[in-house]
Design brief:
Elements: H1 12-22, H2 26-35, H3 41-49, H4 54-73, E1 74-80, E2 92-95, H5 102-113, E3 119-124, H6 131-139, E4 142-145, H7 151-171, E5 175-179, H8 194-201, H9 209-215, E6 218-225, H10 235-242, H11 253-263, E7 267-273, H12 279-287, H13 291-309, H14 314-323, H15 335-348, H16 354-377
Parallel strand pairs: 1-7, 2-5, 2-6, 3-4, 3-5
Antiparallel strand pairs: 6-7
Helix pairs in contact: 1-6, 2-4, 4-5, 9-12, 10-16, 12-13, 14-16
Length: 378
C-alpha cells in the first residue's frame, strides 16, 4: 500500500528504527525524564530500544506520560459512554477539538483502559515540521493531513486521506479519530464542518452514502476541559479576526501552543462517547435524496450529539454570567471558583481591551449558549 506512504504512521517493522533515530534527542530525554522522574536515563533508553511496535510504545511510554500530565496539570479525567463500544471493533470517532495532543491522547488512554481498539489520529502537518515531532507522531499512530495546498492538491490529498481512513477501519480493524472541523475551535463554538464529512464521503466509491457511513461506524465524541490551557494563546487570532485583519502565526507558535496545552492547568476533563450513528443515518437517507443535504443533516446529527453531551463546568457558567453581567447561573459555582476564574482573567487578559475580554469570556460562555439553544429546541 505504498500510496499512503506520505501520510501514514510507522509500520511496526519501522518502529525500532524510528526509536533509534530519536532516542538521544534532547526532547526525547525531556519527555522521558518528565514521565519517569526517578528512572536513570540508561534504564528508559534500554527499554525504548527493545520496543518494536506502536502498541508497546503507546502502552509502556505514552500512556505513562499522559498519566503524569493528568497528575500534574489536572484534577483528573472522567469518562462516560465507553461501555457502549464493543471490543475488537473499529470506529470512526468524530470529536470537538480543544487541544492538539491531549484530545486524542486522553481518548486513547481511556480506550486502552476499557480494553478497546485505540485510534490512528489525524494531525495537521503544520504541527510536525520538526523532524523529531514527525517521528514521535508516527510512533504514536498519527497520520498527516497536509495543509496549505492548492485547490487541486487539496482534492487529491482529501481523496487519499478518505481512502486511508476507509482502509484503516474496514481492512485493518483500526479505529480512527478525526476532529469535526479543521484546527481547534478558538471561540468555544463546536460545529461540524461539512467539508470534513465530504472528505470522508470521497471513499464511498459510488456506494450509498449513508450506508457507507454506517459501515465505518461513526461515533460523536464530546471533550470538555474545565480550563482550556491554551485560552490566552487563542486571543491574538480572535483579535485579528474581530478587526478584519489577516492573522499570521509567529514562527514557533504551533509548537508553543502544543507545549502549553500539555503543561497548562486544565482542572477537570470529561470525555463522553456518543451512540454509534445508525438509525439516524437511515432516517437521513429516507428524508434526503440529495448527497449535499445528507451531508448537512449528518453534520447536524453529530452537532446534536456533541453539544448535548458536552459537560459544562463552573468556568462556563461563570464566564456566561460575567459576559452578560447577570447571575442567573450562580447556583452552578462557588464564590471561590468565581474568584479563581477572575484571577486567571486578570493574569491572562488585558481587561482594558474589550475585544480580548469578550473573546476570552465567549470562549468559555459559548458552550452554555449552545447547550441552552439545543435544549430549548428539543
Amino acid at each position: 500500500m505504498q500510496k499512503f506512504d506520505a501520510i501514514r504512521p510507522f509500520y511496526d517493522a519501522e518502529v525500532n528504527q524510528g526509536i533509534r533515530s530519536s532516542v538521544n534527542h534532547p526532547m526525547m530525554k525531556a519527555l522521558m525524564n518528565f514521565t519517569f522522574p526517578d528512572t536513570p536515563d540508561e534504564v528508559w533508553k534500554e527499554q525504548l530500544l527493545k520496543t518494536h511496535s506502536i502498541r508497546d510504545f503507546q502502552c509502556n511510554f505514552i500512556y505513562e506520560s499522559i498519566q503524569r500530565v493528568l497528575q500534574k496539570t489536572s484534577d483528573g479525567l472522567s469518562t462516560s459512554g465507553f461501555e457502549k463500544l464493543e471490543k475488537n471493533t473499529a470506529y470512526l470517532f468524530i470529536s470537538n477539538h480543544r487541544d492538539i495532543i491531549l484530545d486524542t491522547s486522553l481518548l486513547n488512554a481511556a480506550l486502552f483502559e476499557h480494553g478497546l481498539v485505540m485510534t490512528a489520529s489525524a494531525i495537521g502537518d503544520n504541527l510536525v515540521k520538526k523532524s523529531f515531532l514527525l517521528t514521535l507522531s508516527k510512533l504514536n499512530r498519527n497520520f498527516l493531513v497536509l495543509r496549505g495546498l492548492s485547490p487541486r492538491e487539496l482534492l487529491q490529498s482529501s481523496k487519499l486521506i478518505a481512502e486511508y481512513i476507509r482502509q484503516l477501519i474496514r481492512r485493518e480493524n483500526r479505529s480512527v479519530w478525526i476532529a469535526q472541523r479543521e484546527g481547534r475551535t478558538k471561540d468555544g463554538n463546536d460545529a461540524t464542518h461539512s467539508g470534513v464529512l465530504k472528505m470522508l464521503a470521497m471513499a464511498a466509491d459510488g456506494e450509498n452514502l449513508m450506508d457507507y457511513f454506517k459501515k465505518i461506524k461513526v461515533v460523536p465524541v464530546s471533550i470538555s476541559y474545565e480550563y482550556d490551557p491554551t485560552d490566552a494563546l487563542k486571543m491574538p487570532q480572535l483579535m485579528a479576526e474581530a478587526n478584519n485583519e489577516i492573522y499570521i502565526k509567529e514562527k514557533n507558535e504551533d509548537f508553543m501552543t502544543l507545549l502549553s496545552g500539555i503543561m497548562g492547568q486544565k482542572k477537570h476533563i470529561h470525555i463522553h462517547i456518543g451512540d454509534v450513528l445508525n438509525s439516524e443515518l437511515n432516517q437521513i437517507a429516507q428524508e434526503n435524496d440529495n448527497s449535499n443535504k445528507q451531508i448537512q443533516a449528518l453534520a447536524q446529527v453529530i452537532d446534536d450529539s456533541i453539544l448535548n453531551s458536552y459537560k459544562l463546568w463552573p468556568t462556563n457558567y461563570i464566564a456566561y454570567d460575567l459576559l452578560h453581567k447577570t447571575n442567573i447561573y450562580e447556583s452552578y459555582y462557588t464564590e471561590n471558583e468565581k474568584k479563581l476564574f477572575e484571577k486567571r482573567l486578570d493574569i491572562k487578559i488585558d481587561q482594558d481591551n474589550p475585544i480580548a475580554l469578550e473573546g476570552f469570556l465567549n470562549m468559555y460562555a459559548n458552550p452554555v449558549v449552545n447547550k441552552m439553544k439545543y435544549q430549548n429546541a428539543h
